[in-house]
Amino acid sequence: MCGIVGHVGAEKATPILLDGLRRLEYRGYDSAGLAVHASDGIEIVRAVGKLRNLEKALSEKGLLGTVGIGHTRWATHGRPSEVNAHPHIAGPIAVVHNGIIENHLELRAELEASGFTIASDTDTEIIAHLIHRETQAGHDMVTAIRHSLGHVEGAYAIAVLSEREPNRIVVAKSASPLVIGVSNGATYCASDIPALLPYTNEMVFLEDSEIAVLEAEGFTLTKLDGTPVSRRSRKISWSPVMAEKDGYKHFMLKEIFEQPRALEDTLRGRLDRENADIFTPEIGLSEDDAKRIDRVILLACGTSHHATIAGRYWLEELAKVPAITELASEFRGRDAVVGEGDLVIAVSQSGETIDTLMAAKEAKERGAKVLAIANVNGSAIPRMADASFYTHAGPEIGVASTKCFMTQLANLLMFSIWLGRRRGTIDDAQAAELVEGLARIPHVIAERLRETHLMVTDIVRDFSEARDVLFLGRGLSFPMALEGALKLKEISYVHAEGYAAGEMKHGPIALLDAHVPVVVLMPQDRHYDRVSSNMQEARAREAKIIGVTTAGDTQAQSLCDRFVEVAPTHEALSPFVTVVPLQLYAYCVADHKGTDVDQPRNLAKTVTVE
Ligand code: M6R
Q1: What is the DSSP-derived secondary structure letter of residue 462?
Q2: Would you say the CB of residue 308 lies under 6 angstroms from ligand 1?
Q3: Whose CA is closest to 584, among 470, 491, 474, 500?
Q4: What secondary structure, in 3-state letters, does 371-436 show?
Q5: pTM of the entire structure?
Q6: d(CA 74, CA 2)
Q7: Cα 35 from Cα 87, distance rounded (Å)
Q8: Is 189 among the catalytic positions?
Q9: 100, 76, 62: which is closest to 354 by C-alpha?
Q10: How far apart are CA 582 and CA 564, in angstroms?
C-alpha cells in the first residue's frame, strides 16, 4: 500500500520518478507527489487522483533537479486530498512514507504542544516534524532520522530529503518493503523491483531497522543503532519488458495469457520425469523431516488463500498428512495451537502481505518450521522463513492476481507430490501420472486460451448486467469457485459468492431466481454426479446456469444455459484448467462495464497494513 521511489544521480529526477511511480501505481492510486532538490531548496508538486493528474500538474510547473523522491498513495489516515498527499514537508525536511505509524495521535499531540503546526491528517507528516525537530537541535539528517524513528511505533519505509544535504536521500524501513537499486553514477530506491528495472538489475533489499544513505556514487548501510551493515547487491533476472502491457488492453489480460509461460518457468528444473518425482532442493527439508511432519498449516490471504485450499486437498490426498488452511489475519492474535512438528507454508505473491508475514512469524516463534511460497525474490516472507520455494511468474502488475495464483497452485501440487513420495503415500505409477500431467499443463492451457476468451466474451454479453453471481464447485473446484467470485467482485464490483456446491441447499439457494447466473464448475471428477444434482436444483429455481464443462461433455452441456469447455485432465490437475474461464469471465465483465481493470477502486496490490 503506497509506493515510494527515489533517485540520486546526474540525470533529471522527475522523469525517472514518474516512470517509477507509474510502475508502482498498482500499490495505490488516490494521489501522488514528487519532491526534488532545486537550486534554492526543495520543490514539491502533489495532485489528487491518478498519476496522470500529477503529470499534468508537473507540465505546468516543471521540477528541475537530479535528486528527488516520489509517492503514490493508498489512503489510510486522512482522505485522498492534496494536503494529505505525500511528500510531506516540515522545515527543511521532505518525507515519503509507506506504512502506518500506530502512535501517531500521541506524537501529534506532543508536537502540537511544543508549537509545531501539522497541516494534514496523515501519520506521515508526524515523521517529517519529528525529523525537523531533531535537525533544529543541530543533528545531521541521518542522526535526526535515527532519533526520530526511536519514537515511532508501527510500519514504515521512508525516503527523506533535507535542504541542508542536497546530494543525498536517506531511507529506512521497518516492516514495509524497500529496495535500493545501484548503477553507475546513480542510486535509486523503491517499494518494489519493477520501478527500478529500466535503470538497473542490481538491487539490495533493506532489512528491518536499517537505514541507508543514497548518493550518486553508491550507498552506505547501517542498523538504526549505527552498527555498519555490509550487503552485496543481487542480480534480479526480471526484464523491464516483463512489466509492460505488450499490446494487451490491460495487464490483467496479458497476465492471464502469460499463464502457460509462467507455469513453464515455475515447473522448469523441478519435474523429475525419469524418477516420477519432484526436484526441490530449495525447500530445505530432509527426507527425515518430511516423514516427521505432523501437520501442515497453510497461511495466506485473498487469492493466495484460495490456492492454499487446493494445496490442503492435495496434501491430504497425496501425502496423507493432516493439513489445515488459515486466513493469516484470523490466525494472528487468537492463540492458535501451533508448534514443533508443524510445517507452516506461508503463501504470498508479493511476499510482503503483513498479515501473512506476522502470522508466519508468530508460528515460527512458537517452534514451527516456515516454508515460504512467494513470487518476489528476497521479499519479507521468504526472508523470515526457514526456506523458500519461489514461483517464477515474473512481475504481476494487475491488482487482480491471475498468473501468480496459477504458479502457487503448481508449487503446492509439486510440494504435495514431493512429500507423498517421501512419506510413501503415492506409488510410482500415480506419481508418474501427476508429474507427466503437470509437465503438459502449460501446453494444455495455451491450446485453449484464445478460444476460451472468445467463448467467455460471448457469454458475458448476456450476463454482464447481472447484479449477483454465484459460483459453485466441489472438491478441488470449490476453491476455484471462491477464486472466480473474488475476481469478479474485485474488478467488476458485481456481488459474487463462491460456495461449496453441497452448501447451496443450506441457505444460498434462497437467493436464486431467473436473474441470478450460477457458474457451475463440473470437471469430470469424483464429484461430477453430485454437482450435476446441485446444478439441477439451481435450474429448478430458474437460475441461469453457466457451466464450466469438460470438452465434449454433452450430458452436462445440455443442462446449461451457456457453457465453456475446458480440456480433460487428471482430476488432481483440474484447477489449472477450470480457473482460466473464471478469470476471463471477471475480466470480460469488468471490461464490458468499463471499470479500471488493473487498478480497481479501493484496492492495492500489496497489502502492508493490517
Ligand atoms: O501478495 P499476496 O499474495 O500475499 O496478496 C494477498 C491478497 O492481498 C491478494 O491475493 C488479493 O486478494 C488480490 N487482489 C487478489 O486478486
Answers
A1: H
A2: no
A3: 491
A4: EEEECCCCCHHHHHCCEECCCCCCCCCCCCCCHHHHHHHHHHHHHHHHHHHHHCCCCHHHHHHHHH
A5: 0.80
A6: 5
A7: 6
A8: no
A9: 100
A10: 10
The pLDDT score that the predictor gives to residue 526 is 95
| C-alpha torsion 47→50→51→57, nearest 10 | -40
For residue 512, the model assigns a pLDDT of 87
As given in the structure block, the three cell numbers for residue 494 are: 458485481
Grid cell in block for residue 609? 497494513
DSSP element (H, E) containing 456: helix 428-463
| Burial zone of 455 (CB within 10 Å; 0-12 exposed, 13-18 middle, 19+ buried) | middle
For ligand 1, atom 14: residue with the closest CA: 400
CATH match for 251-426 among 3.40.50.720, 3.10.20.90, 3.40.50.10490, 3.40.366.10:
3.40.50.10490
CA angle 176, 178, 179 (to 5 degrees): 155
Give the Å distance between the CA of 306 and the centre of ligand 1: 10
350 lines ligand 1 (CB under 6 A): yes
Nearest to 85 by CA among 117, 43, 47, 116: 47
DSSP, res 85: S
The 10s digit of each residue's pLDDT in 134-154 is 999 999 999 999 999 999 998
In whole angstroms, what is the distance from residue 557 CA to residue 36 CA?
61
Domain range list for the chain:
3-240, 251-426, 447-596
Evaluate whether 3-240 and 447-596 have a shared fold: no
Q: Is 348 touching ligand 1 by the criterion CB < 6 Å?
A: yes
- DSSP-derived secondary structure for 536-572: HHHHHTTPEEEEEEETT-HHHHTT-SEEEEE----GG
Cα maximum dimension of the chain? 81
Question: Distance between terminal CA atoms of the chain?
Answer: 11
Q: Which three cell numbers stand for residue 507?
A: 441457505
Q: Is the CB of 375 under 6 A from ligand 1?
A: no
Query: For residues 591 and 596, what is the distance between their CA atoms, to the nearest angstrom?
Result: 8
Confidence of residue 508 (pLDDT cuts 50, 70, 90): confident
Catalytic annotation present for 2: yes
Cβ proximity of 361 and 368 under 8 Å:
no
The answer, yes or no, to whether any atom of ligand 1 lies below 6 A from the CB of 401, is: yes
Residues facing residue 67 across a β-bridge = 8
- Find where cell 429448478 sits: 540
Residue 588 · residue 460 · CB < 8 Å: yes
Query: How many angstroms separate the alpha carbon of residue 608 from the centre of ligand 1?
Result: 11
Residue 507 falls in which region: left (phi positive, over 0), alpha (psi -120 to 50) or beta: left
Query: Per-residue pLDDT tens for 465-490?
Result: 899 999 999 999 999 999 999 999 99
Rg (CA), the chain: 25
Q: What are 371's strand-pairing partners? A: 345, 387
CATH code for residues 447-596: 3.40.50.10490
Given 2, 189, 404, 560, the catalytic residue: 2
Candidate list 369, 403, 489, 605, residue with the active-site label: 605
**Residue 402 alpha carbon, nearest atom of ligand 1:** 16
Q: Label residue 91 by pLDDT band (50, 70, 90).
A: very high
The domain made up of 3-240 has a fold known as: Glutamine Phosphoribosylpyrophosphate, subunit 1, domain 1 (3.60.20)
CA 349 – ligand 1 centroid, Å: 7
C-alpha cell at 306: 484460495
